[in-house]
Structure formats: C-alpha cells, structure tokens
Amino acid sequence: MEKRVTFNERWLPYLLVAPQMVITIVFFFWPSAQMLFQSVVVEDAFGGNTKFVWFENFTSLLKEPAYYDSVRVTLVFSFLVAAVGLALSLLLAVMADRIIRGASAYKTILVWPYAVAPAVAGVLWGFLFNPSVGTVSWLLHGIGIDFNYVTNGNQALILIVIAAVWNQVSYNFLFFLAGLQSIPKSLIEAAAIDGAGPGRRFWDIAFPLLSPTGFFLLVVNIIYAFFGTFGVVASLTQGGPGQATNILVYKVWNDGFRGQDLGGSSAQSVILMLVVILLTVVQFRFIERRVHY
Amino acid sequence: MVENRPWLTAFSHLVVLLGVLVIAFPIWMTFVASTHDQATMLRPPVPIWPGTHLFENYREVILNGYGGKVGSVPLAMTLFNSMVMSLGIVIGKLLISIIAAFAIVYFKFPLRMTCFWAIFVTLMLPVEVRIVPTYGVVANLGMLDSYAGLIVPLIASATATFLFRQFFLSVPDELAEAARVDGAGPMRFFFDILLPMSRTSIAALFVIQFIYGWNQYLWPLLITTKESFYTVVVTVSRQVQVTDAVPQWNLLMAMAMLAMLPPVIVVVFMQRQFVRGLVETEK
Question: Which terminus of chain A is more solvent-facing, meaning fewer CB atoms within 10 Å of its CB: N or C?
C-alpha cells in the first residue's frame, strides 16, 4: 500500500527514521552479526585468541545429549502449554459468550493474569505448590499425592506448564471471545431455526469459523512457550531438578552466562533464531491468507 | 441469545465462575499471605482469609525490603526504578516509532523500503534469543547499571511502528492534500492533524507497552548489578530463588503483590484501550 499524496523533502524523512534505525542497528543488527560470528569461532577462556572453526560449535552441540534433552523438554512443554491453554480458554470464551448478565465483571478478572510478569507468575504458583507450606500441595497431600516440584522432575514440568498457561490464558480468552462475537448472528439464528441445538451450532458453525483465530493463537502460544517463559522457569525451577525443565531459552542463557560457553550458546541462539523465523513466516503467510477470505 | 435455555445459561455461569475462581486463586492466596505474620505462614495449612498484619508487612517491604538482610533492597526504590524503566520504554517506543512510521508512509525517499524491512526483521528475534551478544554491545557502550541501558535497547519495536503505519495508511489522502494546498509543511501536518488523530492508537499502545516494560525480567537481570538499579520484578524473583531456612512468606508475598499491582491497575482501569491494543498490535 502506498500513499497517493506525499511530501517532498530531501533530508527530513532521513531525520525522522534515524532514531529508530540507529537503535535497530546498534542493538539488533550489530549483536545479531556478532552472534553469527561467535557461532563459528572458538575463543579461549581469557578472550585472547579467536579461532575460526566453521561449524564445530554446531556439531559439538548436536553431539551433546543434554541438548536433545532440552529440545525434548521444550517440545513437550510448548505442546502442553499450547494445547491446555487453548482448550481452557476456548471453553471459557464459549461459555462467557453465552452470558449476558455479569459478563464484564467476569472479564475484568479474566484479564488479570496478562498483567502479571511471567517471573511473578512463577513466584505465585511456586508459593501455592511449595512442598512445605503450599495450599495446593497440602490439599494434594490430603488425597495421597506427594507433590514436590523441587525433587520430582515431572511434577516440576507440570508446575511450569500450569504457571505458563495461567499467565497466557487472558490473551487466548480475549482473542477467542472477539472471534466468537464477530460470527454473524444470522448464521446462528438460521441454524437454530433449522433445529440445531447449542452443541451442534458450536461444532458446525462457531468452531470452523474460529479456526483462523485458533491457528493464530497456536503460533502465538508456541512462540510464548519457547521464548516468553524464561521468567517462569527462572523463578520456579531454574531448569531443574536435573535437566527436567531446562527449556532451550533458559539453556542459552545458562550456558552463555553461567557456563561462559559463548560459542555453544551462540550456536544455540542461531538455531533458536531459525525457529522464530520459521514461526513468524508461518504466522504471516497465514495472516495474508486470512485477509483474502 | 438465540433461545432461552435456563439450564444451559446456569451451566455457562457455573463454568465461567469456576474459571474465574481458579484464575483468581493464586492472586487471592498471595494477598492473604501478605496480611499474616511469619509464624502463621509457616504452619500448614496456611489460612485462606486475610489476617491483621497488612500494614506492617507492606511498610516493612517498602521501606526495608525483605527482612532487612544483606542484599535486600527497599522495595520503594525498585518500584521507582521499574516505573522509570517502563515509562522510559513506553515513551521512547512511541516517539521513535511514530516518527519512523510518518517518514515511511508520507515521504518517498531512496532506502525507504530498506528501512521498512530493517525494522520488520526485528520481529524475528526476541531479545531472549540474542541475549549474550546484546549484553556484550551494551557492556562495550558502558551502559551497564544505568537507566539508559535498561531502556534504550528495548525501545526499537517493530510492532509500534507497524501499528502507526497501518493507522496512517487508513487516514484519508485528502487531509494531507488539503494541508499541502493550505501551505502547511510536513511537520505542521504531523503535529496539527496526524498526532491528534492518533490519540486512540497511542493510548492502546501505551497500555500494552507499559505492561511489556514493567514485566521485563531477563534484560534487567543481566545488566543491573548495582542494587540502586534493581527493578521490582527481578528483585522479587531473586528473593524467592535465594531460599532461606525459614522463609518469610508474608514479606515475599507482599513484595509479589506490589510487583504486579501497577500493571494490573493499568489493565483493569484501561480495559477498553488494553483490549484494543492487544487485538490491533497483532494485525
């Protein structure tokens, strides 16, 4: 899209884009270039010698079993966050869509979690599930389940899924609700006149019409689970116990800053970059398609 | 509603109410914990109704931080830092992206599309992914432990630029034409016509970006080592990770409450702008 009417100035437009461009170049392109560079070199511990090693950082990363563990944990984690989060928020949105009285009061509470930082969400759920004083772990203990996320890897994973889903539920809910409310009432009414009950109307009309929203949210949730959940993991489990919750984005930081393995960390960053690019492209392709509907 | 089904309506209320209770539960328990004394919070089951120590707990964390121990920072200071950081990010983002969008939409110049794509690709790489080299750049520029270091690297944002671009493209051409006929220069047009028209977009972006700025975790965690620059979210998380033998849950939870209060207030009171901003930034 282009404007028909434009102003003719020689220097002004450059002046106007300059701040944005300078910041983008200094804090985005420069570090990204360095990341690409560091992923193909090895530096010794004192930063003295830099040796070009082609793809050695990548091959040694791909030989590391810990990396595959992290990939597996990340995939399981993001699948659970997306699946559970989407299912719950769709259910809530469908039910909230039916409600007329009190809807705005419900909505006010349902948007809260979006405002809570992932790191703080981790703190809240860590308190509820604290092995010694947590209310939920106390209740679970009452029905014979020993919940201790500090020592049990699977339970730690469940807990970060719960915290991440909780954190993201408002976002999904608002988009599903907006999607439901944009479905033409005449369609629903026509189906009702033809004798379709609420369940039938949902599965045959609302659900297919919601699928673009659902797909969009699926991508957003995967991106969130991959990159937005650092704070949840840092507050709750720090990647442990063992490697049970060491998701890729946490591992990049952990290896780069704690482990001082710049080459390995940069190689991981480059791989993650490819993942984001892939996801973003998928998302944009899809948005383009949606415009043509 | 299409037809009246009282049972189904009751069921809907039940489900939503249940959802609301589950979603509000962690926040409620955090609030309750912040109103009791330390001893009560160490004896399970912990109470589910508020106690009587609200004011002393909050006064303690705001003025002294977590238990006045070494390394604990008065929360008032971290709240101030968070406020500076998030307002800095919001204002910086809005400023640079509105003028960049103005240039890209209303001028034809060589490199226009280059600039557009350069801004566009920043979407592809969240700061979490390129964290190590970005840290290096900021360290080289001597911006560690400073407000500039907290704010500037985070204000380059494709989303805000796109939203403004989208909005400017929807502004009728006749307005710019009329301004030109009347002899108004581009900046006059920008300040007198475009800026007032962008108010709702600015408000929507303000809410979204304020939350984004306030809730930053990894970036401030890395670049602040001096206590005087700690932000509140990082401080709360750090304090929880340093597990004491006898944790003071009442104080920790009071800190968590304070850390989430400002963005929650913004979302609840600016709900309309918030929903608008959320839906529009994703277009």
Answer: C
